[in-house]
């Protein structure tokens, strides 16, 4: 956690810093409410603000109330914790560790996925894995089926992802993608590398249905779609 300590006693600040840093927290120090206000006045994003503010109880007053109100307007998830003088630094570190464990998981961008995979078994395995992750999946066995579905969506700014393998009909896939982008400007195309065919032996080897490198690529798409400055696929950032 990123922690800002507002405390006017140097010895107390040192004790808190040692305990919190030992628990892997990142700590910033301030000796007064006024100093903290100056430090935080230009913070505009969550990355620029602390997750927690620990403030000595005796520093609470009109100035701290104004600071808390100002921060609450900008960062609604920021925790403001007054410190009693009798609290031990080690206990505070353990308390913050407990809060970190209880923190809800970050919101996960849900994707609308058009999956084109001719192989029935692999298509079913991939669709099942993606659906289990909370994504909406339309599995297509042919280019014609994928083209018909995408054409029926009409104009939409919703995020869509086309997942298709590298294959000899690449020109048709490119045509499909570029045509769909006319109505779906936020469409992304994930090119899935073909699986290696196992060498033939005296015994038949079942084809693997693992999804190599699929999820990391999709997670990259999620991050880009959740970033308001992200560029659509096909454009250079």
Biggest sheet overview: 4 strands, parallel
> How many distinct beta strands?
8
Strand content: 15-25%
Quick one: CATH class of the largest domain? Alpha Beta
Oligomeric state of this protein: single chain
Mean pLDDT: 78
Count of helical stretches? 8
Number of domain modules: 2
Shape: elongated
What is the CATH topology classification name of the largest domain? Rossmann fold
Considering the chains and any ligands shown, give keywords for the structure:
2 domains, four-stranded parallel β-sheet, disordered C terminus, Rossmann fold, alpha/beta, 8 helices, 237 residues, elongated
Question: What's this, in brief?
Answer:
The chain is an alpha/beta fold. Helices cover 40% and strands 18% of the residues.
